Amino acid sequence: MHIAIPLYAGYDAMDALGPYFVLRNIPGATVTFVAERPGVIPDEEVTLTATASFADVPRPDVVVVPGTRDVKQSILDEALIHYVKTAHATTTWTTSVCVGSLALGAAGLLEGVRATTHWVAHDLLVQFGAQPVDERFVQDGKIITSAGVLAGIDMALHLASLLAGEDMAMAIQLGLEYAPQPPFNAGTPKTAPEEITAFVRSVLRPA
Amino acid sequence: MHIAIPLYAGYDAMDALGPYFVLRNIPGATVTFVAERPGVIPDEEVTLTATASFADVPRPDVVVVPGTRDVKQSILDEALIHYVKTAHATTTWTTSVCVGSLALGAAGLLEGVRATTHWVAHDLLVQFGAQPVDERFVQDGKIITSAGVLAGIDMALHLASLLAGEDMAMAIQLGLEYAPQPPFNAGTPKTAPEEITAFVRSVLRPA
């Protein structure tokens, strides 16, 4: 089973790594960072290495598209969009983390599809014909999109259960000691103080 | 403000990256991966780059020691232990993720200290005179230890609030959309099915 995580200019490393550290524990699964050309792909500060090109892994069983720090950047990457579109034809699951769902949209995969993304970018889904849904992750057909950044871990555990069964997904969760207890209840605009939400929105989507 | 995350042979990249992606958002904070010698430090599959040596950052304000996949490996790394011990003399906060707390113990910092670690390694804390505590993270004096792997994210948000205030910690949480909804309730042995716990224990601490 081959799981491809495409990297591209501007990708957010945490979006890629959350699912990576879940999915790499699936027995028999190979998780590969792929890019237009193999090599070191810098995020802002962390660098990940793509060990294969898009052309080397044309028909992965699963694609996990990470988002970007600049919310619209993935839409502009033609090589990424082309890869997502062609790989989707034969995937078992096509998935995204955070604003990676916008790349799925740009590839034409979200027409009429229930989907989600980082809360700051929900409005951008509509242009691709998607039906924005305010959930942690959304499965519609073989497309699974997740909310912002760390929602990718929840999505990946669900994906692990689809790929390897619930027992294996629970074992992975236990190995990672994923029994979250955030010290604050500010992880979504539904619970965060209004002024905090306004501040974060202004940072992530400057006018 | 300088936050040092020491890397060493066998370190677990997720232990380092969870706190990294939280703490790098603190205004005015510099987060540096340090190692005995600068350069690429491979985890099993992901590689991170230490941009400074231990000697380059002798007096960080904060140290965050990641754990290892092989639970006892950090204890054996003399350069790491020496760094943790000497840095601790002048830190504001000395912290660890997962079995990184064993390195704090080996450095002699946990004598009589309430501390935690990955659930699979709790018994190993006692040899260092620590008082093992079954909590997500534990603050005792200026030492903050966290439970396994992803507990490092919860600990780092708490640390962010200590360093930059609760509003900034909440803003970081909201930016990462950290409103966790694991699809299973198996993140600790307290809630996981017994046979799953036995399986994971056998993988992480083979007899």
UniProtKB/TrEMBL annotation, chains A, B:
Pfam families in alphabetical order: DJ-1_PfpI (PF01965)
Highest taxon of source: Bacteria
Keyword Transport: no
Organism, as annotated: Planotetraspora thailandica
SUPFAM superfamilies: Class I glutamine amidotransferase-like
Domain DJ-1/PfpI, first and last residues per copy: 2-160
GO annotation (BP), single: regulation of DNA-templated transcription
Name used for this protein in its record: Glutamine amidotransferase
Keywords: Glutamine amidotransferase
